[in-house]
Design a protein that fits this description.
single chain; 569 residues; ABC transporter transmembrane region fold; six-stranded mixed sheet; four-stranded antiparallel sheet; 19 helices; 12 strands; ABC_transporter-like_ATP-bd; transmembrane helix
């Protein structure tokens, strides 16, 4: 119910259109009842062959009700659909606002295909919430109650029959089908999520699947997911058709009861025979408004599942209480005490009892074998993840109090994988800072040995037309253009040759002379300039000190250095 209440709040934002939809829906429904009621009375009255002038008023009412019905139905459709489309826009905005604070770590818990299914399929499913769930019961109750009050003037017994019919078609039958619908809707959503995941992985991994000759297996799995989704949709469709049929059958049976009861009352003299056809026509017409109730259970469960999947993301992620914003123009230092971390749904500890101090303005290198926790430690410093236990301080402020976007705003970050958008070199560099001049961007390209690049050179999606080294150099240029006081570099030159790497580091270190710089590297050459070197293995710090201190100690770092010399000479 929490998720449905959020949906109701979003619907309430369009209260003007909602009220107009209900008003015109009521007008259309009552006009239809009035149209058929006057038609029934006109037929009965005409059978007695009255003077023509006696029927003129009834004919005028028929035309008036017909016009009012058409106008009301058009206006009801217009305002209800406008409210729906605006509501969908509000839902997308609300979902993005819910998702955006957790974006860096959301892919640990959710696969990209699943997120795509939520933001596309689930949002589209919620278009039926107002039109099929929120709006019909309100209009149904108002029209039925008005009709029952009118009918009670002629026969209390028939009014009671109509009231029982309302309970059956509006509450009892939909409730029975809703019990079955919950299981069906759950399977449909799961099948759609699996299909979306398989399609996304198939598209992203097509090249690798082709190279390793696994394309057919993946295609078969995708076809199985598609077939499963189609089967569940067919079951859902059959359930809706059956529910609609039962609801229609009940409404027709109620009309037969009205006819039989009315005939009995006429025979007893308790009802004027002129009104019998009118009451029967009313019963046939008023239950047209109960038709949407037949599919309400399926749409209600659909809306519950969709809203639950959309709005549960923030509840399942770690809530961030950070409110402190970092100021600019200063270097930043870190201190970690007893920090442990493991990824969700993974038993292995990625970091264990990490104790580390990184002074402001210092240069720190993190080295160690692959999988030792270096990159994860950087992500904790950037607050992409939060530690399981232990304390992390940034400039004497506890990390949990600092807004993570404030940290990212004050950082020059180059990760192992950097995203490049479809466009030009200029557009990808302009992500670093607003109001960059062409000369500044060209200088940055020259600093990373990309002087041959022009700013209007095209960049394909994910930088597919760039080599690994060009991607890394373009990412470094972007970081240099940002020009903040905290540098977070994770293997920034792993795909760059040694000579180019040395030139880039000279310029980079010159720019970051007074800044805090933290570098993750597998290469041990060129670390002599570092203020401290942190050696990690299996999630723990095994050594730390300057380059000369570690070499003199002849421990883990010394052994790594000797192996590197043996391999590379």
């Amino acid at each position: 119910m929490k998720d449905i209440s959020q949906m109701i709040k979003l619907v309430a934002l369009e209260k003007k259109d909602v009220l107009l939809s209900i008003l015109f829906g009521f007008l259309a429904g009552m006009s239809a009842v009035g149209l058929f009621a006057s038609s029934g009375y006109l037929i009965s009255r005409a059978a007695l062959v009255p003077p023509l002038y006696a029927l003129t008023v009834l004919i005028a009412f028929l035309k008036l009700f017909g016009f009012a019905r058409a106008l009301g139905r058009y206006a009801e459709r217009y305002y209800s659909h406008r409210a729906t489309f605006t509501m969908l826009s509000n839902i997308r905005v609300a979902f993005f606002e819910k998702l955006e604070p957790y974006a860096p770590r959301v892919f640990q818990k959710y696969r990209s295909g699943d997120l795509l299914a939520r933001i596309v399929g689930d949002v589209e499913s919620l278009q039926n919430f107002f039109l099929r769930v929120y709006y019909p019961p309100v209009v149904l109750v108002v029209i039925f109650l008005s009709t029952i009050v009118f009918t009670s003037i002629f026969s209390t017994s028939i009014a009671i029959v109509l009231l029982l019919g309302l309970v059956l078609t509006g509450v009892f039958v939909p409730y029975l089908f809703s019990l079955r619908q919950r299981t069906i809707e759950n399977r449909v959503r799961e099948s759609r999520g699996e299909l979306s995941i398989d399609v996304t992985e198939f598209l992203f991994g097509f090249r690798d699947l082709k190279i390793y000759q696994q394309l057919e297996d993946k295609e078969e799995r995708m076809h199985e997911s598609s077939a499963s989704y189609i089967r569940e949709q067919e079951r859902e469709g059959m359930q809706r058709i059956f529910s609609h049929s039962v609801n229609t059958l009940v409404s027709l049976l109620v009309s037969w009861v009205v006819l039989g009861l009315g005939a009995y009352l006429v025979a007893r003299g308790d009802l004027n025979g002129l009104f019998l056809a009118m009451l029967v026509m009313i019963s046939l017409t008023v239950f047209e408004n109960a038709t949407p109730m037949a599919v309400l259970p399926s749409h209600l469960e659909d809306s519950k599942r969709a809203s639950g999947r959309l709005f549960s993301i923030g509840d399942e992620m770690i809530e961030d209480k950070g409110r402190l914003h970092l100021g600019g123009g200063e270097s930043y230092g870190f201190e970690l005490s007893g920090v442990d971390f493991h990824f969700p749904e993974e038993e292995r500890q990625t970091l264990q009892q990490v104790n580390l101090k990184i002074p402001a303005g210092s240069k720190t290198a993190l080295v160690g074998p692959s999988g030792s926790g270096k990159s994860t430690l950087l992500q904790l410093l950037l607050k992409i993840h939060t530690s399981d236990q232990g304390d992390i301080w940034l400039n004497d402020h506890p990390m949990e109090r600092i807004d993570e976007e404030s940290i990212w705003n004050r950082s020059n970050v180059v990760l192992q994988e950097n995203h490049f958008f479809f466009g030009t070199v200029r557009e990808n560099l302009q992500l670093a800072k607003d109001d960059l001049t062409d000369e500044q961007m060209l200088d940055a390209l020259r600093d990373v040995e990309l002087g041959s690049f022009r700013l209007d050179y095209p960049v394909f999606e994910k930088g597919e037309n760039l080599s690994g080294g060009e991607k890394q150099r373009l990412a470094i240029a972007r970081a240099m253009l940002k020009g903040e006081q905290l540098w977070i570099l994770d293997e920034p030159t792993s795909s760059i040759d040694a000579l180019t790497e040395r030139k880039i580091y000279e310029r980079l270190f010159n720019q970051a002379e007074r800044d805090t710089l933290i570098l993750v590297s597998h290469r041990l050459t060129g670390l002599e300039l570092m203020d401290q070197i942190i050696v990690m293995d299996e999630g723990t710090i095994v050594e730390k000190g300057t380059y000369h201190e570690l070499m003199h100690k002849q421990g883990y770092f010394y052994e790594m250095k000797q192996i590197e010399k043996t391999i590379f000479g």
